[in-house]
Amino acid sequence: MDELESIIEAQREKDNFWWTIEFSTPLSDNSEELLSTVAALSDSIGSYIFTEKDSEGNERLFLRADYDGTKPLDDLMFMVNFILKDKDFKDIDLTRAYKTSNQPWEKQHYDAFPPLNVGKSLVVMAPWHEKEEIAPNRTPIYIYPSTAFGTGYHESTQIAMTLLEEVVKEGDTILDVGTGTGILFITALKLGADKAIARDIDPTTLDEAKRNMNLNGINPKVCELSEGDLLKGFKGQVNILTANILLNPNVSMLPDVRPVLKPKGFAIFSGMTSVESSMFLSVLNSSGLEIDKELKIGDWWGCRATKSWS
After folding, report:
1. 268-284 pLDDT, tens per residue?
2. Quick one: fold of 2-110?
3. Is 298:264 a contact under the CB 8 Å cutoff?
4. How far is CA 310 from CA 266, 293, 305, in A?
5. Per-residue pLDDT tens for 219-267?
6. Is-same-fold flag (2-110; 113-307)?
7. DSSP designation for 68
8. Where are the domains of the chain?
């Protein structure tokens, strides 16, 4: 907890205020990833993504990002507007910017990331909730909220965690593709898996995964972290494969999934909307896999698959 305490103390020394900028974008298969990228590129010191209806009743995804209060707001706005000029961010609107003050920095984050029960046996917790009482039937998964994908507060991550907790067992090896914060492989290890292999195309997210491993008391020796593009170059077989990514990378990876699964292995796919499920399933069924279970939370959908022997 020393790192958190130092951040809090540093923020107190800045007279307890920071700049907050809100962004919004229509819901899509990559809207959360785009908002997270904006937060990272603009050097946000903390961010929160949530869904809310606009004035016309349409659901949109919002990013509330906080910035160092010692920086001039004009300079900050210039940088943010420059980032949003990129064609990849053309659907992202800057909603408003304001000064946040008169409340402790840590209280805002307490409010934004309360303990969240997931599935039948898990509870996702920010590290500053570490000393709070935990129900005896819940395993805590400590995740530091950041710009990396997978804080546990998004429905797609909850789907993957729920499908995972039902099948992971002692001695398993898990391969987590597009690991982000590492929440899925950390969950597997805390539920009894012996080894994790985690890959992400963005090497900067691996530091987030390492930090979260440390928060959960995970021995670095049981996890192999590496930069990797989906399953390219991967050799070997695992008991469980997890991929909480997006529709297109999930689909493109499907032909390579069956060879990496052990005979009774499971592949868990998430990060897709209910509308996209039929497209994904049509490809899955021709990839030597068959559905074991589907799960929907809100507008989001995921599934667990096994090898097809027919």
Report:
1. 999 888 888 999 999 99
2. Alpha-Beta Plaits (3.30.70)
3. no
4. 17, 18, 14
5. 999 999 999 999 999 999 999 999 998 888 999 999 999 999 999 999 9
6. no
7. -
8. 2-110, 113-307
